Amino acid sequence: MTVRVGIAGWIDKSLIDSKLFYPLNVKTSEERLNFYASQFSLVEVDSTYYRVPTEQMVRGWAERTPEDFVMHVKAFGLMTRHPVKLEQVPPDLREGLPVDDCGRVDRPPRELRAGVFREFLDALAPLRDRMTEAQLRRLVVAIRATTGIEALVWLTDIAQVSYRGTAPAMTDIAGGVVDVMFTGPPSAMALAAGGKVKMLAVASPQRSQLIPQVPTVQEAGVPGYELAGWFGLLAPAKTPPSVVDRLASEVKKAVADPKLKDRLTEQGLDVFGSSSEEMRAIMQSDTKKWSEVIAATGAKIPQ
Question: Where are the domains of the chain?
Answer without folding.
Answer: 13-154, 241-296
